[in-house]
Amino acid sequence: MHLARIPRRRYTHGPTPIEHLPRLSEHLAGPQIYIKRDDLLGLAAGGNKTRKLEFLVADALASGANTLVTTGAVQSNHCRLTLAAAVKEGLRCRLVLEERVAGSYSPDASGNNLLFHLLGVDDVTVVPAGTDLDAAMQQVADQITADGGKPYVVPGGGSNALGALGYVSCAEEMLAQTSDMGLPLDHIVCASGSGGTHAGLVAGLYGNQAGIPLTGISVRAERAAQETKLHTLANATSRLAGAEREVPADAITVRDEYVGPGYSLPTPEMSAAIQLFARTEGILLDPVYTGKTAAGLVDLVRTGELGSDGNVLFVHTGGSPALYAYQDVVLAEPDE
Ligand SMILES: *Cc1c(COP(=O)(O)O)cnc(C)c1O
Prior knowledge:
single chain; 336 residues; alpha/beta; 10 strands; globular; binds pyridoxal-5'-phosphate; D-cysteine desulfhydrase activity
């Protein structure tokens, strides 16, 4: 795999840190927990979509586009970061927001919604859950073309093979860092949503023969469907990165028992995990992705599935701006 062949913009200075979390590790009384601080990536307020956008926006610029079009949920971190990349590159940006939970869109909401407006979004189209989002984005793109512009459609979550290269690169970065640190990893845990993060990490770890098991915590889909989708995406990503071997299906592990009632809907374990990370390590998670992923991590440590010693790396994919749209949930008492 040799990513230097593929055009890329740079939105972060250097690697994001890997930090030890000694107080959290002591509290959980299992393996040592480390964190990959991808919440500190570049572009407004950081997070995992920044890595994908380095490749996607380079492709958009090469195509001569003047407007990015993308889609996400009403508090989408991906939409915030696509918009921030557009601003930085002197492009325009239009968003299609899917109201995945009925009634969840409010034009005055805080969190990422506030940032859409602060960053100067050109246009927001809100569509109901279950809308064909590719068709909805194409409609927006056609309008831009009709008005004399040149659109570039970034897929939801930035999760096509090109975007997922961002996490092939992250896997290589983590392998270089941990070998410099003399830190042997026994397990990696990440969020699994639109899938580009998880699939890119699988492609990068497998392609470099790292031999480190990776568990993706689903924030939305049921396990079997997510694993099938990831296998296809991991292989497309691998091929694009120039790997010679297929990624086997058993390199992909998804756990779906931490989703709760559904995407973006709170669970008590999510609130507890957000409070635990904040109060032991001063680290801000988010209610939709990393809070549920951390709830999964905590549970897998408590049940002994991650072993009793060794080193586990939690990939912090960002998202803290959404905290400000979930005030009650974030401070919920565990028994409420
Ligand atoms: C989008 C997102 C994820 C999920 O990443 P995918 O690549 O879509 O699976 C995780 N955490 C945060 C904060 C996100 O915004």
